[in-house]
Amino acid sequence: MTKRELIGCIAGVIGIITICFGVYFFFEGRYAHAEDMIKAMESIKRLAVRLDYKIIEDQLRGVQQRIWTIEDRYCPDKSKKCDETNMPQTVREQYRELKFQRDQLQEELRNLNKGNPKVYK
């Protein structure tokens, strides 16, 4: 092997190594890392759970407010439990439905907290 062939071979090997490193660093810097994507997905999941919790909590607050409005109107004596006999039939049905919705929403919140104890508070 002559000197010229040896220098050409060394330059070729150095060129190939340089191209490989360049391609590696190009893709490394350009595309997201798997670890970063996993962290981002976990963050998105936590945010989605917080949003679900907040939505259910707001619905529960609205239902409870409607229950209190009915109780204020038809149960003036606060020292006793609200008696449904003073209510008209339609209001009684609505009152029962609101209580049922409240129980369902409270159960949803409990289930949400069961799986994620450190949710939004």
Brief sketch in words of this structure:
Helices cover 79% and strands 0% of the residues.
Q: What's the total count of β strands?
A: 0
Q: What share of the residues does DSSP label as strand, in percent?
A: under 5%
Our count of domains comes out at 2
Radius of gyration, CA atoms, in whole angstroms: 33 Å
Structural class: mainly alpha
Distance between the termini: 76 Å
* Biggest β-sheet strands, sense, barrel: none
Uncertain segments: none
Assembly type of the shown chains? single chain
Gross morphology: rod-shaped
What is the H/E order? HHH
Mean of residue pLDDT values: 87
What features would you describe in this structure?
This protein is mainly alpha-helical and 121 residues long. It folds into two domains: 1-31; 34-115, no CATH class. Helix content is 79%, strand content 0%. It contains three helices and no strands. It has helices spanning 3-30, 34-74, 89-115. 1% of the residues are buried.
Layout of strands and helices, then pairs:
Layout: H1 3-30, H2 34-74, H3 89-115
